Amino acid sequence: MTLADLQTTLKATDADLKNVVLIQIYLTSLEHKLVVDEIYTCYFSEPYL
What we know:
43% helix
């Protein structure tokens, strides 16, 4: 599932990404971390913890 898919699913239930408590992202390589972080910040705002 992508973050866009999650956003669409939440919208169908009258919720949004502000209702998300936990996201687990598994990377096959740490080389992808910067790209994932960049995408993540497009969907979520600070504080992330």
